TrEMBL record:
<keyword id="KW-0131">Cell cycle</keyword>
<comment type="function">
    <text>Negative regulator of FtsZ ring formation; modulates the frequency and position of FtsZ ring formation. Inhibits FtsZ ring formation at polar sites. Interacts either with FtsZ or with one of its binding partners to promote depolymerization.</text>
</comment>
<keyword id="KW-0132">Cell division</keyword>
<feature type="topological domain" description="Cytoplasmic">
    <location>
        <begin position="23"/>
        <end position="568"/>
    </location>
</feature>
<protein>
    <recommendedName>
        <fullName>Septation ring formation regulator EzrA</fullName>
    </recommendedName>
</protein>
<dbReference type="InterPro" id="IPR010379">
    <property type="entry name" value="EzrA"/>
</dbReference>
<keyword id="KW-0472">Membrane</keyword>
<feature type="coiled-coil region">
    <location>
        <begin position="276"/>
        <end position="425"/>
    </location>
</feature>
<dbReference type="GO" id="GO:0000917">
    <property type="term" value="P:division septum assembly"/>
</dbReference>
<keyword id="KW-0812">Transmembrane</keyword>
<feature type="coiled-coil region">
    <location>
        <begin position="99"/>
        <end position="186"/>
    </location>
</feature>
<feature type="topological domain" description="Extracellular">
    <location>
        <begin position="1"/>
        <end position="3"/>
    </location>
</feature>
<dbReference type="Pfam" id="PF06160">
    <property type="entry name" value="EzrA"/>
</dbReference>
<comment type="similarity">
    <text>Belongs to the EzrA family.</text>
</comment>
<dbReference type="GO" id="GO:0000921">
    <property type="term" value="P:septin ring assembly"/>
</dbReference>
<keyword id="KW-0717">Septation</keyword>
<keyword id="KW-1003">Cell membrane</keyword>
Amino acid sequence: MMEIAVIVLLLLGGVMIYNHVYRKKMYSEIDRLEAWKISIMNRPVPDELSKVKQLNMTGETEQLFEKWRQKWDDLVAVKLPDVEEKLFDTEELLDKYRYAKAKAVLREIDQLLRQAEEEVQLIIDEVHELIGSEEQNRTEIEELRTMYREAKKTLLAYRYTFGVAAAKLDEKLEEIESKFKQFEELTASGNYLAAREIVLSSKGELNKVTEMMSDIPELLTECQTTIPAQLEELYDGYKEMKQEGYILDHLQIDREIVQKREKIEQCMQMIGDLQVEEAKQGITEIKEEIDTLYDLLEKEVISHHYIKTEMSRIEEMLNELNEEAKETSEETLFVQQSYRLSTKDLEKYRSIEKQIHQLMKRFEIIQARILEAKTAHSLLKEELEQLLAQIEMMKEEHEEFRKMLQTLRKDELVAREKLDEMKKKLSEAMRLVQKSRLPGLPKSYELQLSEAKDSLMKVAVRLEEKPLNMSAVHQALEESGNMVQRVYERTVEMIEQASLVEKVIQYGNRYRRRYPSVKEGLEEAEFLFRHYDYEQALEQAVAALEKVEPGALQRIQQIFRDERSKEE
């Protein structure tokens, strides 16, 4: 029972502590909201509203003032007192331990104060905007009036520089002046915010007019003086070139100049209508088009000079190429007596001859067109450049063919040198066989040696053919070279096998008496050796010896290598 009583006491104590802490927290929140309410009531709204009274209290200003005053009065007389009552209610709820209800009321008060704070700030911001608008209006309207007077003065003093645009500029300035009057009326009636809109729109329009007045004189100069002078100069150059014999009909300069003059008139109309940006773009396009026409005329002059200087050089190159082709033709006939040319090579040469003939014909046609004087020099220049590129390409192809002819003789000499080298290598193989004093040669080796000799004979026969077929010679050379190499490699291998067989048998003789199997194996190896089967003899001898002395072959090979090193 004592334990239960203690637990109950502890629980009661915990509840009381929690109750005390929670109530303290809630009262802290009430104090916070009370302080917030007082701070809202102390905001300087009345002071800010008093500033508004210094303005013209009519029209828009009067309406705004009444609206702000009513909002503030409503806050002070109704909303904030209502908050005060709710705070008292909250304290009573806490005294009655109705914590959930008290917490809900506190949340409601927080929301009311937040809305009140926002309304107060909105009133102050709007008051500042109104007063600021009035101050800015007074400052900026004077600056705009100064700009207006300067623009008006410039237009009067230099009216002739604005030409067709002067009347429209007058209208624009009059519109701006009327806005000044509208501004005064709105300000006098207390409509400062509406007056602010007039100031901003007037500022934009006046800046635009000022910028146009800066651009228009230069644009008019371009349209009335600079571009017409360029067109006259262009036309004079065009007529002079025609008199000198240039073919310029394809440029249609007359039509282009008429179009440019029409575009100038359109730009003048745009300037008169104050479409300055469009006029700027149009003038830029006209100037670019005139530059293009100048470039085309210059291109004709450059092309004329090119034709004048390059015709003789191109003719000389063609004649030189044609003479070289004739020499190559004779050389080809001579080479064919000694060498057989492939169908592909002959077709290539016939193609070269044909193309050179076509280039000569094409050059003659261009010459005739130049004399006829009916084709523009720029077009003739392009054709000559294409012709020159083809001549260069044909020179390369022709040179490649000539080198191929020269290579045939070099290939023959190289082939004969290779044949001599292969003969020497085969002779060296035979010398090694004689020096080794083998008891005889295997039939397969003799056959391989005979085939190698026959292949060398075939190469020699190929080299004596007239005309010489170098493709067949190269093929025979390759086949023969492979055979001779195989014979030489087998010769060296066969001699080494034979010598090693002798060494193995000599080494194995020490085991003949003790091991019948070794004796039998060595006798079989000797039999194979005497019948020239050196490879099988070596295998048989090694197999017999390895049975009684594993690793004997490596020791014998080392002894064999040491002996050869001493001999060398």
